[in-house]
Amino acid sequence: MLPALIPAIPFLGACILMLCWKRISRSAVTVIGCGSVGLSAVVALIVAATVASAGKQPLVQHVWQWMQVPGFAAGIDFRMDALSVVFTLVITVVGFLIHVYATGYMHDDEDYGRFFACMNLFVGAMLVLVMADNLLLLYLGWEGVGLCSYLLIGFWYKDPANNYAARKAFLVTRVGDTAMAIALFLLFQYMGTLNIQRLLQEAPVLWQKGDPAITLIALLLLGGAVGKSAQLPLQTWLPDAMAGPTPVSALIHAATMVTAGVYLIARMHVVFELSPAAQTTTAVIGAITLLMAGVSALVQTDIKRVLAYSTISQIGYMFLALGCGAWSAAIFHFVTHAFFKALLFMAAGAVIVALHHEQDMFKMGGLKKSLPAVCWVFLIGCASLTAIPFITAGFYSKDQIIWLSFAAAGGHKVYWLAAVLGALLTGMYTFRMFFLVFYGEAKTTVHRIPGPVMMVPLYILSVLTTVAGFIELPHTLGHVTLFSNWLLPVLPAVQMAQDSVVMEWLSQLASAAVALGGICLAYVWVLKRPQGMVDFLSMPGQVWLQGFWKRGWDMDALNDALIVRPFVYLSQINRKDLIDKIYTGTAQLMEMCHNLMARTQSGILRWYIMGVVLGAVAILSVLIWRLHGVV
Amino acid sequence: MILLLLILIPLAGALLSWIAASRNVLWSRCIALASLLVNLVIVGQIWATHAATGGQWIYQYKADWVPHFGISLNLAMDGLSLLMLVLTFFLGALSVLISWKEINQRVGFFHFNLLFVLTGITGVFLTMDLFLFYFFWEMMLIPMYFLIGIWGHERREYAANKFFIFTQAGGLLMLLAILALYFIHGANTGVYTYDYFSLLHTPMQQDTARWLMLGFLIAFLVKLPAVPFHTWLPDAHTEAPTAGSVILAGLLLKTGAYGILRLVLPLFPEAAAHYAPWIMFLGVLGIIYGGMLAYAQNDLKRLIAYTSVSHMGFVLVGAFSFNTLAYEGVVMQMIAHGISTGALFIIAGALYERIHTRNIQDMGGLWSKVPVMGSATMIFVMASLGLPGLGNFVAEFLILLGSWQADRWITVFATIGLVVATAYSLRIMQKVFFGPSHQQYALPDLNKRELVIIVALVAAILLLGLHPQPVLNTSQKTDYVVR
């Protein structure tokens, strides 16, 4: 099987849907929309099996020459290696489930076909991103998913708020993309190629560890990753991106696109290994982001915004792992996160649809009785997100990151502390949400019980969310390393600074304790003593602080004041183009002179004579003065 | 001989369609369209057969004109000329098609002017005699003046005059420089000629070369246009009829870029290199300044017009980077910008025909009414902000990759220009097609004729983005100045 088929099938689906969705029936749209992604998943599985059976030998396919000029060439070249296989499988399988779910979620939408056209386009672009063999093709996928994200956030285009959110997402990520583009220029300047494998092979030959040039390149790449993955300081677009339909949030803004930055850094890991400064920056950004976003998630009222901040926070964990050199741990967390966050988003979507597009958690409550199935799958997702020990995939992936943030060669006590604190926050915000939505008194009535087409994907994801953890178990618990072994040809094993089993136990105990502690706190906060919480929150300063966190630490206001408003102001005052004033001004001056001179031609003879006399006098006086001067 | 035909066919078409209009307007349109299609087929045929093989010059034709002054009918075609001609006849034929219903007054004279401009442009792209170059350069000007002044919108006379004065002033400087070059070459070698190939290596003082280069350069900077000579462009583009805007943005601006590549750099390589940092600065200034101006506009055509200023800044940055990557990018940019901006003007014209306004504040929510038009606009808006997979990305990426080797900071700011491009491009979509509809317009979607035009343009921009290799290969046949 050819790797190129994997992205080609969704692209084909997108093309067909775009051209003729108005002319074909709704069920045909469903078949094409879901079928293309499903077929792509099947091909991906076959390709993965081929790679696995060939001793993880990568499959490379040259499709056509994209551009070739003297000194530079880039092809439409795909490469399936262990890392690409992981991403491809997650994208196609989770993508397929979300597509199926969306047929139920979007069932009554008049633009049903347009929705699936964009979704298919997204899947194709995302697959190009993770399968590209050169950075330029990767950049094509990178921008392509940005476009689809833009189209789908603003899918309900009649509401201007959605368009602003879409535009913001595109613009903010474009800032990161600019940094990434400059990184490409630098890489090309030094190495004369953008082929990823050649870059990875030649970089260690060309540069010593810590060389300023490679640090600059790594930091610029990090800029691109930070934009796409909604990390500090470019994270502000993701909470607003929740304006899109919920399947979009699940697919693009939780499971796949936002982790593109993680993929980029893992893919270019050699560059980051050569630059300790850039790696530290990555870890610090991850640690700060995971804490800030966790705190923000704690005070949101909109269920989707909780999940959005949670996504930012969890990707913060991945960045932290990448920064510590724990490459496969980051990818492992990507996989489990894709499962449980897609599950959570879709379950939240089921609630939202059931309540007639109500998203405010404080208007929900008591849904355990009316939506028992949704409650159960949501609970499974929450458990995994909180990393409840032993039974959830989230535990194995997150625990690994927490341990390695301390024990890896690039780790540090402070990172560990941040990660554990983040786990506490995770437990709190997750179960605050869970209790608010499903427990307490019922405040609304359920209008629509989600049908099997929405529920079956949720069941499948619930299973995946639970069993996916068992492919990688820590030393202390069985020591299974299927996942990191699989990635070994692409991503090197983590360098350990600490290898004490006792310490690892302690770390695991701590993280398990804070996760459970977080749940208890949430329980007390929401269900046991809500009045106490109300009193606490109305304390002076608390109200402001809460608002501050809810607004995402006022990063929006900061961006507005520093970049957006100056730009808009400058362009508004110059709307008429000052430079044009020079030309029109000259023209006006000429016209003024002309008018002035024209006045002298008045037809009054006395004035003319006067002019002649005055002129003669002036000329004579000049002459006399000159002659006098000579004499 | 075939090169002469390429010039004569549209010229004959111009006269014939003028005459035919007095009998039947439809004939006039058909003759105009047919003559351009014939030329398109000819250049397409040349591209298909000759581009891959042979030396630098695909065709050459030389005949004496005024031998006494060393003026000859000297035509030649290399890769660059060929590509420009394909673009010329492609956009030319589309211009006739878009005017099919829009132009109903003095149809014959309109087509006469349209084809006459195209004849001038063809001449500029083919001639290798500086006197003849100037001749064709001026020949483009007058019919364009009429196109704006007669069939334009409300402020058409102001715009036409401004266009004329700016271009004419620049042209005069070029004429002076051409004459000076002619005499310097004659005095030094004894051979008085306007022949491009003979003048290429004229020995002269460094200072003289720099002054002469500025003479040529300013003419081309006005045409391109570069900041601060750009202010004729928004008025001319906005007021011109749709076909006029397409030809202005798609082709006339390209003659400026072509002039830089064909004349300024080869004739005065040392002087060009000397001023290169300043000119690149002008280019990057244009990218950002033009982008900011575009962002602030409410008139849709004016907005698109300013995006041209921004995009042509890339051409300037690339042309003065002196390396092959950037040159390839510049040629791609000329073609891709011609198509994407031409398409945006066509859409703006189609909207104006339907709702009789160009003010984007009065639009909004049009997607539900004209989804096909909206999708097409989305594609070209994305092209304009440099989305990979569409032609403009290949162009801008190659330019930036090349200019990075020449000047890093210029490139950094030019890259930041892509963020500005995102801002103004998305604003178009948001204001025109998304959001609530303020007015209850009843407007039909694209009709068959418009659909043919748009589909051709979409196919072109996609092909350029995904398979630019034929263009790149052809453009490599041109001998650029590399250092």
TrEMBL record, chain A:
The chain crosses the membrane at residues 6-21, 28-52, 82-102, 114-132, 138-157, 169-190, 210-227, 248-266, 278-299, 306-332, 338-355, 376-396, 416-439, 451-471, 505-526, 607-627. Pfam families: Proton_antipo_M, Proton_antipo_N. Residues 132-426 form the NADH:quinone oxidoreductase/Mrp antiporter transmembrane domain. InterPro entries: NADHpl_OxRdtase_5_subgr, ND/Mrp_TM, NU5C-like, Proton_antipo_N. Residues 66-116 form the NADH-Ubiquinone oxidoreductase (complex I) chain 5 N-terminal domain. Keywords: Membrane, Transmembrane, Transmembrane helix. NCBIfam families: NDH_I_L, PRK06590.1. This is NADH-quinone oxidoreductase subunit L. It comes from Chitinophaga qingshengii. The lineage of its organism: Bacteria, Pseudomonadati, Bacteroidota, Chitinophagia, Chitinophagales. The gene is nuoL.
TrEMBL record, chain B:
It comes from Chitinophaga qingshengii. Belongs to the complex I subunit 4 family. Keywords: Membrane, Oxidoreductase, Transmembrane, Transmembrane helix. It is found in: Endomembrane system; Membrane. Its EC number is 1.6.5.11. GO terms for molecular function: oxidoreductase activity. The chain crosses the membrane at residues 80-100, 107-126, 132-151, 163-184, 211-233, 245-269, 275-296, 303-322, 334-352, 372-390, 410-429, 450-467. This is NADH-quinone oxidoreductase subunit M. The gene is nuoM. Its main location: membrane. NCBIfam families: NDH_I_M, PRK05846.1-1. Residues 128-416 form the NADH:quinone oxidoreductase/Mrp antiporter transmembrane domain. The keyword DNA-binding does not apply. InterPro entries: NADH_Q_OxRdtase_chainM/4, NADH_UbQ_OxRdtase, ND/Mrp_TM. It is a multi-pass membrane protein. It is an enzyme of class 1 (oxidoreductase). The keyword Ion transport does not apply.
